[in-house]
Amino acid sequence: MATAAATCWFTALTSATGPSRYSLTSQRFFATTLRRHSHLIAPNSETNQNAETHAAINPNRKSRTSKKPLPSSPRKSSAQKEAIGQRFPGTSKDEVHFSRADARSSKTVRSQRNQPVAFKSFGLQKKGNKGGNNVFDIKEQQVETGNFQDAAFLNAVVKVYCTHTAPDYSLPWQKQRQYTSTGSAFMIGDGKLLTNAHCVEHDTQVKVKRRGDDTKYVAKVLARGIECDMALLSVESTEFWEGAEPLHFGRLPRLQDPVTVVGYPLGGDTISVTKGVVSRIEVTSYAHGSSDLLGIQIDAAINPGNSGGPAFNDQGECVGVAFQVFRSDEVENIGYVIPTTVVSHFLEDYERNGKYTGFPCLGVLLQKLENPALRACLGVPSNEGVLVRRVEPTSDASNVLKEGDVIVSFDGIRVGCEGTVPFRSTERIAFRYLISQKFAGDVAELGIVRAGSFTKLKAVLNPRVHLVPYHIEGGQPSYLIVAGLVFTPLSDPLIEEECEDQIGLKLLTKARYSLAKFKGEQIVILSQVLANEVNIGYEDMSNEQVLKLNGTRIKNIHHLAYLVDSCKDKYLVFEFEDNYLAVLEREAACSASARILKDYGIPAERSPDLSESYVDSLGVNHPVEQHEFGDGPVSNSEFGFEGLLWV
């Protein structure tokens, strides 16, 4: 059966210099092959060659999706979504697309480039380990097969076969049709393997196969690092590990150091080796996690299926993990690997906490201080420092930093006026690199200038709290159905499924520019109405934010379920944007629910997580501020101007 690669487009806006929630600098594609049809390049799959041919013959054919028992809004193809993103009033000419080869649909991501470009992740991009493990690197642009075909470390690289079943965010009580993909992974010892997170996203089954073997072994996903696009696997079979030698991690390479990428990309079933050099080392946008971490740019070929495969140096040490490539008509031979520093951070995080907790952030919006008059006005005597423009309410920095403060040092390291810090002997790197070296809960010492006076403060670093998440923890989205009204939290995957034109400009503006005021806050929307006589007149409502129930401001989807369950009034009065009301008689709504669920083939009126007791993290009597976009909309310049950055 002909199949093709499936890809996901999502729209996100980020700063050219910061890890903003909706800001990415260019388009990247992941390197796993899929059994689905798309016009984008995808990772290798069992039927990938056939799929690629089919996609080339019929590039406009839509991806197959599971049959849904409910009528819903028409979906847009990847090409349509791309066109929508280009004409959407809120998007800029700098928008580019990030394509996830292991996902079923495409997502659009914004970048600060002036011209559209494409990053394709055909291999896994990982940052190097801080530990003593070594990394493999290669010197020349084309590897001589004789030098590597008998190398023992090649046997540590395995092929990954994954079956994915992604949630249906528009119909959150069900899943989409499953699909398969292939990628690469490698052994690190102690019965564990490393690969890319996007290679095993929404996995229902993961299998691995060693080089020269015809047996596939079941693997278990121990941890996923969405931000760093890393995943840790384990294989229990002792037979799989017989004679295996794990790879050793090496130091961060230098410019022009030779590097060799090994994996199982398209073009064949056996292991593949490509060779190049290190072209650049800097903070890079990670397409899968929409984050900014250290990355290594190389000119070795990275293709679909290389994701999760190691990159070696001349000593046979692993210096990184292939994960994405940059595609544009104006450039060529730009691939990216995750350095061992990022890989080691991921592994140490898992060892410390028994799970992945994420990379921390400071939680402030910064402005560069390149202008001498600006520095003089702020009382900064030297050519250094960055200005605090905003502080995220959910960050610990909100307790110690104020707008107008100038950060001049971080843990004793001076911060330049361009937002950079010293890196190795003769280089400089983005300030947020220092923050990415910390772990959740670590304390950082900040040297600041406030009203012309220098002082030192301490702030606890924790992962950023997203009002609209990129990924759904646990895989399945929450939902609540009240008399046919389907409520669910707004998320980036939902925006991607529904398309921007169906979500609406106002809701997209909130999703892109709002900051969470407290942990657990969500934008709850009425995604659709399942037509029934009890909800006559509301059938055409869709993708509308619900603000209040019977006068009480809604904090999140669990809070809404609690308010519905505890309501004793005669009517349920839902208040939406622009004072639009939807009123249901409570008893009639309760009696109609079971019939509606049966008519539409829905197993339950709410997701399992909403059946748990509601705990108000703010306190029952804590007032919720009446705000539209936090304490005011964030301007486009705060996310897109090169002099500004989130850290």
UniProtKB/TrEMBL annotation:
<dbReference type="InterPro" id="IPR001940">
    <property type="entry name" value="Peptidase_S1C"/>
</dbReference>
<feature type="compositionally biased region" description="Basic and acidic residues">
    <location>
        <begin position="92"/>
        <end position="105"/>
    </location>
</feature>
<dbReference type="Pfam" id="PF13365">
    <property type="entry name" value="Trypsin_2"/>
</dbReference>
<dbReference type="InterPro" id="IPR046449">
    <property type="entry name" value="DEGP_PDZ_sf"/>
</dbReference>
<dbReference type="InterPro" id="IPR009003">
    <property type="entry name" value="Peptidase_S1_PA"/>
</dbReference>
<feature type="compositionally biased region" description="Polar residues">
    <location>
        <begin position="106"/>
        <end position="115"/>
    </location>
</feature>
<feature type="domain" description="PDZ">
    <location>
        <begin position="363"/>
        <end position="415"/>
    </location>
</feature>
<comment type="similarity">
    <text>Belongs to the peptidase S1C family.</text>
</comment>
<keyword id="KW-0378">Hydrolase</keyword>
<dbReference type="InterPro" id="IPR041517">
    <property type="entry name" value="DEGP_PDZ"/>
</dbReference>
<feature type="compositionally biased region" description="Low complexity">
    <location>
        <begin position="68"/>
        <end position="77"/>
    </location>
</feature>
<dbReference type="Pfam" id="PF17815">
    <property type="entry name" value="PDZ_3"/>
</dbReference>
<dbReference type="InterPro" id="IPR043504">
    <property type="entry name" value="Peptidase_S1_PA_chymotrypsin"/>
</dbReference>
<keyword id="KW-0645">Protease</keyword>
<feature type="region of interest" description="Disordered">
    <location>
        <begin position="41"/>
        <end position="116"/>
    </location>
</feature>
<dbReference type="InterPro" id="IPR036034">
    <property type="entry name" value="PDZ_sf"/>
</dbReference>
<keyword id="KW-0720">Serine protease</keyword>
<protein>
    <submittedName>
        <fullName>Protease Do-like 2, chloroplastic isoform X4</fullName>
    </submittedName>
</protein>
<dbReference type="InterPro" id="IPR001478">
    <property type="entry name" value="PDZ"/>
</dbReference>
